[in-house]
Amino acid sequence: MNQRMSGAMLSYLLILVKLVVTLLFTPFMLSSLGTEGYGLFALAGAMAAYLMILDFGMNDAILRFFVAHENDREKRDAFLGRMLSLYAVLAGLVLLAAVGFSTLAEPVFGASNTPRQVEMLRVMFLYIGSGTAVLVALNPFGALLSATESFVFLRGLEIASTLVTTLALVAVLLAGYGPVEVVLVTASFTALQALLRLGFAVLRIEVRVRLAWPALDELRSVGGYAAPILLVIVAEAIFWKFDAILIGALLGAAPVAVYAIGVTFNKYFMSFATAISRIMTPEIVRRIDAGADAETLTDLMIRISRAQALVLLMILGGLIVFGEQFLTLWLGAEFAASYPVMLLVLVPYALELTGNVRNIVLQVKGLYWYKSAITLGMAALNIPLTVVLLKIWGVSGAAASTGLAVIAGYLVIAILLQRRVGIKMGRYWRETWRGIFPAFAGLVAVGLVGASYLPAGWIGLVMGSMLFAAAYLVAMLGLAATQSERDLCRRAVRGALPGRRRHA
């Protein structure tokens, strides 16, 4: 198998590993830390997302420039050296921001949390900042490995890191340590993963780095490509992380835990969707640079979006039918309140993620500023709406606000694609959802009725999930999928079999 196919399969294996780890480790972590301790950990994670903003969106930008230099190693390595110098400055900004967050812990969270909890947050922000600074400093190596399509190493490293980090966290929690030590371990392994990417780039890709400061014109070029991406990163951080901060400031740490569990599956949804689009990114860039017209881009978006929809809707359907039962069995009756949070966010997010390849198209076409402005506007609207709905419906109100903002942004960006890129959105939607949506709606309706006839407890949940998955595969592959999609699935399955790989 080539790097793309192997990388795609390892990407889905990575998602599966992370999902299994989450399912097995989260209850243990909750019982070890308690609801409030887990809420503090979630708040630290939210702050980590804001520190990563100080990458300034340039990771995607330099990936695009690495692709442009892929046939000239000398230019590529010189560009890498200049970007590493720039990113060293960004890492320093991350450390300064971490100190600032630590200083603000008491004024922001002191009213709804105890002094001990505030002190723990202060220390956790410093640990998170240190790990994130190392990650940001070495980010150019990750971009280089993606540009050279070293997907097997990248995904394999992430799988190994996930497993080793989890084992270390289990040992820390069994030893009786708390959320501060959990964050320290997590930050340490984040830094280690970045260092291993550096080692691979030096030893296997044989980069030769000489640090130098980029010229002003180069900074403008990279910055011009990255700036709109930065705005989207800021907007998405507001969408997915600021709710937790508002809940922590207004309601306390325990409600943060309920909300955090409700949005736990967001990252897996995003991972399933981007596993395909990330691997296709270099090829999409090449095709647009070669002058692909709007009709070709529409066809490409439909093909990728259908593949994403086939995967995402199986997960979404299972969560709609069995989500509340699963949360209650998994974490206890107090987390049944996470079910509406989960659906209010995931249903619109599934629509947003299906077809996120449009982001690459907008970036390369130089139109990402429009997308950035739209997303940032929706995120800004989300803040006051969240505050209002929090007071009315609690954590479910925060989720409803986020979901409404996601849908509004998606529709406005669709208008942008049609008017400025020439994508025929009507054809895109019809062909993307043809066969898939009717089958999905029918399966969910039958599943909701049939779930009441299943045995209670884990046995009924497992039986129901297996039946739903089997029915989904039969319906989608038998009725909804096109012949080319069926052929692709067969090739992927054959390629995954050890005895067949040499023929792939």
Automatic annotation (TrEMBL):
InterPro entries, sorted: Poly_Biosynth_Transport, Polysacc_synth
Subcellular location(s): the record lists: Cell membrane
Q: Which GO terms describe its cellular component?
A: plasma membrane
Residue ranges spanning the membrane: these are 12-31, 37-58, 79-104, 124-145, 157-177, 183-202, 222-240, 246-269, 310-331, 337-355, 367-390, 396-416, 436-454, 460-481
List the keywords (alphabetical). Answer: Cell membrane, Membrane, Transmembrane, Transmembrane helix
Give the coiled coil ranges.
Answer: none
Name used for this protein in its record: Membrane protein involved in the export of O-antigen and teichoic acid
- Organism of origin: Halomonas daqiaonensis
